[in-house]
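SEQUENCE-TO-STRUCTURE ENTRY
===========================

Subject: a protein chain together with a token-level encoding of how that chain folds.

Sequence line: the amino acid chain in single-letter code, read from start to end.

Question of interest: how does this chain fold, as expressed in backbone structure tokens?
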Amino acid sequence: DLERSAESELDLPSFGKEVLQRFHELYYGAEIGDSLFEHLRGTLRAIVDEFAEVRIEGIAVVILPTELPGKLGICYLAGVGSGSALALRQNQMYRLIEVTAFEERKGAYEIVSSSGFVLDGDVFFLGTGDFFRLVSLATLKNALSFHDPQEASSFLAPQVHGSEDNSGVAAVVALIRKQARGVQMTQTLPEE
């Protein structure tokens, strides 16, 4: 049951937490089957269907370590609503996925997906459509060029918080680094 305040507005922090918890339960609580990629898409579709009374926006990312030469992992992405996932690799910005709301019937949204390899030093950025409305790609590239999630977050926060219409803004920055054993992902959320 969705929590609502006395004014019948959705309690966004509680709702967001509920959606993430449910995603975790569905993704990790079910048998993956033959395709991790399809499992990710199916989990996101189940979330959209389960919470059909509200518009869900998000991009889910799974990185599976690999033993392929020069590659740290395989990245699977799936998104719904509006937003983008980008990567900075060797100072070049790449759009990995762009999601725009698509309404075929009430509550039905297209799930967009993508996959690719992860390399040492890649900087990943996930942001809602509202984030990209407030921050230009040039500014984002400058922030990601620090190759430090905390520095990037500190650079971007004033631009987001300086806007009056920032309630739908959410973003994650992650730096991929090779470790002695496996892949290390450092992430940060923009400062509140």
About this structure: Confidence is low (pLDDT under 50) at residues 1-7. Helices lie at 12-29, 36-50, 129-134, 137-144, 149-161. The beta strands are 58-65, 73-80, 83-89, 92-99, 112-118, 123-128, 171-178, 183-188. The first strand starts at residue 58 and ends at 65.
